[in-house]
Amino acid sequence: MLRNFTRLATNACRQPRITFEAVRALATSPLKMPSLSPTMSEGTIIRWLKKEGEEINPGDALCEIQTDKATMTLDTEDEGILAKILMPDNSTDVKVGKLIALIVEKGDDWKSVEVPKTEEKTVSPKNTETKTKEEKSTSQKSAETKAEKPKSDKQSTEQSHHAIGPAARTLLEQYGIDSSKIQGSGPHGVVMKSDVQKYIDSNQLKVKSRSEDKKSTKSTSQEKQISESGGRRYHDIEISSIRRAIAKRLTYSKTNIPHQYLSVTSNVEQILKLRKQMISDPKTTVKVSVNDFIIKAVAAALRQVPQMNGIYEDKQGLKLQSTVDVSVAVATDNGLITPIVFNADRLSIQDINGQVRQLATKAKDGKLKPNEFQGGSFTISNLGMFGIRSFSAVINPPQIGILAIGQNLLRCHGEDLKAENELVVTLSYDARACDSQASALFLQAFRSYMENPTMLLANNKSESMLNF
To answer: Does the reported pTM lie above 0.85?
Structure first.
C-alpha cells in the first residue's frame, strides 16, 4: 500500500514537468529555408542580420540569402526571440525546407532550447553513409595490401638474383649504369666488379662529372613538378548559386528550345535627334537614353503583334499574356539578372527611364524582390554600349523571344554618301510557339517605331490585333 502511494506521489510531481516541456516545445517555432523563386531548390545563407538572443518583430530582416536569381533578405512576419541559429554564415547548398533557425516567444528561456529530434535524425544517415564509406575504403586498402604482398615477394627474389657487390656499386654510380643491364657472374647471380668493368670496356663509357649529375637531378625534379601541376597555374573560383542556375537554364534552353533567328536593320537618326531635343529642354529633369526608346518600341511592337508576347510550357503549351512586361538584362558581379518593366507599353519613355535606373541599381546591390524579376513576357539584351555590332541571344524560358541589340553604326547611303546611324537587332524566337511570319511582323513593327519615334510619344498604348 505504501509503495502504491509513493508511485502516485512521484507521478503527480512529474506531471507538471511534462506539461511544462510540452508547452515549451509548442512555443518553439521552426524557421526553415524558404523558396524565394520558382526555380529555387537550394540557397546560400550569406550572413545573419540578427544574433542569438535578440528580439525580432514583424518586418525585421533576419538574414541575407543568395538564391538562383539574386541576393535577398529574409524578413520575418512573427515576433519573438531568435533562440538558435542552425545554419551559420556562408552556409552553402542549403536545401529548401531545411531547418535553419529556431524562434521562441518573448519571455521564454531561449538558452534552453534544443534542436528537434527530427532534425537530428536527418543528420544520422549521413554519418552512417560516411561510416560505410570508411569501411569500404579500409576493406579496399586491405585488399590492395594483400595484392601487393606477392608483388613485393617477387621483387625481393628478383633483387636477390641481381645482388650487387660494394665495389661494383661504386663503379655503377660513377658511370651511371643501370644494374639491370649487367648479368652477374658471382654466386647466386651477384654482380661483381669484373662484370661492371667488362660492360664499361665493351661500351667505351666515361666517368660522369658531378655537374651532369646535378643537371640530371634538377631536370628530373622539374619534370616531376611539371607533371604534378600539369605545367599550368590556375585559381579555383567558387561558382555562385546564381551562376549555377544561369548555366542550368541556358543549357536547358539551347538543348530543348528550337532557336530560330531573324535580323533587321533600322535607321535611328530620328531617335537621336528627338533625344537631343528632349535633353536640351530646360524643363526636363530626366535624361532619356536610346535604350529607353528601344524598350518602348519593343513594348509597342509586342502589343501590335501579340503572338510574340507569351510564354511556352511543355505541359500547358503556349499562353499569350494580356500585359506587356519587358525583362531587361542587367549584368551584376554574380551574373545576369532580368528585372521587369511591367506594362511597358502604357508607360512614357521618361517613366521607363526611371524604372530601369531604379531596377538596375537594385539588381547590382542585390536588393531586388522576387516579384521584380520573376515572370516577364519578353526579354531585351543590349550589348551595344560594349561595341558589339550584333549577336544572338539565348531565349529565357518560358518566354518565347529575346531581342539582341547591337551597336549604332554610321553607314553611308545614296549618291551623296550621306552618313546615317543604323542599328542591327537579332530576334531569337521559339519555333514551337511562333512561326517566321509572326516574328517578321514583330521586327517590321519594331523598325517602324524606331524610325518614327514620334509614334512612341503620341500614344502610351498602341493598338492590338487581339482583344484580351
So the answer is: no
Q: What is the dihedral of CA 115, 120, 123, 128, to 10 degrees?
A: 150
**Residue burial 385-412, b: 16+ Cβ < 10 Å; e: rest:** eeeeebeebbbbbbbbbbbbbbbbbeee
Angstrom CA distances, 183 to 164, 166, 190, 298, stand at 10, 16, 8, 87
* Closest CA relative to residue 401, chosen from 423, 382, 419, 426: 426
SS3 415: coil
Residues 250, 392: contact at Cβ < 8 Å? no
Burial class (CB in 10 A: 0-12, 13-18, 19+), 278: middle
Cis peptide before 166 (omega within 30 of 0): no
Rounded to the nearest 5°, which phi and psi values hold at 56? -125, 145
Helix (H) or strand (E) holding 328, with range, is strand 326-328
Q: Which of 337, 301, 315 has its CA nearest to residue 427? A: 301
Cα atoms in the 13 Å half-sphere on the side-chain side of 65: 27
- Phi, then psi, of 426 in degrees rounded to 5: -125, 125
Residues 6+ apart with CB under 8 A from 418: 412
Range of weakest confidence among 22-36, 39-53, 100-114, 264-278:
22-36
Sign of the dihedral defined by the CA atoms of residues 344, 349, 351, 356, in that order: positive
| Per-residue pLDDT tens over the stretch 140-161 | 545 544 444 444 444 443 444 4
Q: What's phi and psi for 216, nearest 5 deg?
A: -65, -40
Q: What are phi and psi of 292, to 5 degrees?
A: -65, -40
Kindly give, in sequence order, each residue whose CB lies less than 8 Å from that of residue 77, ignoring residues fewer than 6 positions away: 58, 59
In this prediction, residue 370 carries a pLDDT of 80
**What DSSP line would sit under 278-303, residue for residue?**
HHH-TT------HHHHHHHHHHHHHH
The grid cell for 201 is 670496356
Q: Which three cell numbers stand for residue 177?
A: 649504369
Nearest CA among 397, 422, 429, 448 for reference residue 262: 429
CB atoms within 10 A of CB 173: 11
Buried b (16+ CB within 10 A) or exposed e, 54-78: eebeeebebbbbbbbbbbbbbebee
216 — pLDDT class (breaks 50, 70, 90): low
